[in-house]
# Entry
Amino acid sequence: MTRDQFSFFHPFRIRYSEIDGQGVVFNAHYLTFYDTAITEYFRALGYDQYADAKKTGMDFHVVKSVVEYKAPIRFDAEIEVGARVARIGSSSMTFETAIFLKDSADLMATGEVVWVNTDQSTHRPAPITTAIRNLIAAREKHLAA
# Structure
């Protein structure tokens, strides 16, 4: 995975509370970085997931998350987390994520997060709306129909 595969990045600076006894980012924080970057990705698109869920009764559930560690990230490092929608199915969406050192091609970690659009009254999968598909396709040209 390379930096040029992403058009969206969210910055972070590693805090002392995020490192472990080995002096590197504790593994569980990577998913927080990915989740935050995905939230900011949608904010940059102008999509308010929380408001939409309240209005429609539909929301996304995480059904899969993967982290692959490439190199240690240490205290006070400045990182940028890339997020992109790699695939949209009828009810699911797959995000690819990657962590790079700030202004660098140095790949520190990669990830995959899969969401399923879900009717909150039944907790069953539901189709992703055309409006959401179009919003994402405007950024992710490989998904345009």
